From TrEMBL:
PANTHER family on file: DNA REPLICATION LICENSING FACTOR MCM FAMILY MEMBER (PTHR11630), DNA REPLICATION LICENSING FACTOR MCM4 (PTHR11630:SF66)
Stretches assigned to the MCM N-terminal domain: 8-82
Protein name, as recorded: DNA helicase
Pfam families given in the database record: MCM_N, MCM_OB
Length: 240
C-alpha cells in the first residue's frame, strides 16, 4: 500500500470523525448535506486537517497536485458509500475537496520562482473578472471520414484532438460533438495587493487566478479575497 493510499484512507477518516471545539462532526455533517444543497465541492480548513493529522502538512508541501488528487478521490469514495444516487447523478470529475486557509501565506510581491508548482495562500483585492466560459474537459470527437466517435480527455485546458482515427486509421481533422462532450465553468480574475499590504510609495503588484467549477462568480471586483491554490506560470509574450 502506498503512502497515498494510506493518506486517502486517513482523509476519509478525517471527513467521518473530525470534531470541532463544540464536539460537532463538522465535515461529516456537510458531506451528508451535499446532495440536499446540490453541492459539488466541500471546503476544508487546512488548519483543521493538520490538527487532525499533521502528515498532511508534508503531503501538501511535497506534491500539491497529488495531495489534491488524493483528497478528491477520498471525498468521492466516501460519497459513493454514503450517497451513491447523488454520485451517479453528477459528473464525478467535477467533485472537489477544496482547501482554504493554507499555512503558507505569500504576499504578492514575495512570489518567486521557488513557489511555482507549490500550494500557496494569497490575498488581495479582486480587480476584474472575465466572463464565465466553458472549458472543454472531456471531448467527444467524430471522424469526418467514417463517422466513428472517439472520446478524448483534455489535459489542463489544452485542446487535444486524436492524431488519427482508430477505426479507419486516417489522419483527418475531427468534428467536436459539443452535445456529447463535457465542459466545466472557467473564469480568470485578477487580484491586486490590498492597501494594507502595499509598502509606501510602491505600485501595487497583481496576479491572475483561474477559477474552475462552482467557485466562478463567487466574488465580485472590489472584494478582499483569500485564495489557496497552486502557483503556475504562463508564457509572457509581452517581454520578449
Ligand atoms: Zn475514421
Amino acid at each position: 500500500m502506498s503512502s497515498y493510499d494510506e493518506s486517502q484512507e486517513r482523509f476519509e477518516e478525517f471527513l467521518r470523525t473530525y470534531k470541532d471545539d463544540q464536539g460537532s462532526l463538522t465535515y461529516w455533517t456537510k458531506v451528508q448535506q451535499m446532495s440536499i444543497n446540490d453541492e459539488i465541492s466541500l471546503t476544508i480548513d487546512f488548519q483543521d486537517l493538520i490538527s487532525f493529522d499533521n502528515v498532511f502538512l508534508a503531503l501538501a508541501a511535497e506534491d500539491p497536485s497529488k495531495f489534491i488528487e488524493t483528497i478528491n478521490s477520498a471525498l468521492l469514495a466516501v460519497l459513493r458509500v454514503e450517497d451513491p444516487d447523488y454520485v451517479s447523478s453528477i459528473d464525478a470529475t467535477s467533485l472537489k475537496a477544496r482547501i482554504s486557509n493554507y499555512t503558507e501565506h505569500v504576499p504578492l510581491r514575495a512570489i518567486r520562482s521557488k513557489h511555482i508548482g507549490k500550494l500557496v495562500r494569497v490575498s488581495g483585492i479582486m480587480m476584474r473578472a472575465s466572463e464565465v466560459k466553458p472549458l472543454l474537459v472531456q471531448a467527444m470527437f467524430q471522424c469526418r471520414i467514417c463517422d466513428e466517435k472517439i472520446p478524448q480527455t483534455q489535459e489542463e485546458g489544452r485542446y487535444t484532438e486524436p492524431v488519427r482515427c482508430p477505426l479507419c486509421d486516417k489522419k483527418t481533422p475531427m468534428r467536436l460533438l459539443a452535445q456529447e462532450s463535457q465542459f466545466r465553468d472557467w473564469q480568470k480574475v485578477r487580484i491586486q495587493e490590498s492597501p494594507e499590504e502595499l509598502p509606501p510609495g510602491q505600485m501595487p503588484r497583481s496576479i491572475d487566478v483561474i477559477f474552475e467549477g462552482d467557485i466562478v462568480d463567487l466574488s465580485r471586483p472590489g472584494d478582499l479575497v483569500k485564495i489557496t491554490g497552486i502557483l503556475q506560470t504562463s508564457p509572457d509574450f509581452s517581454r520578449r
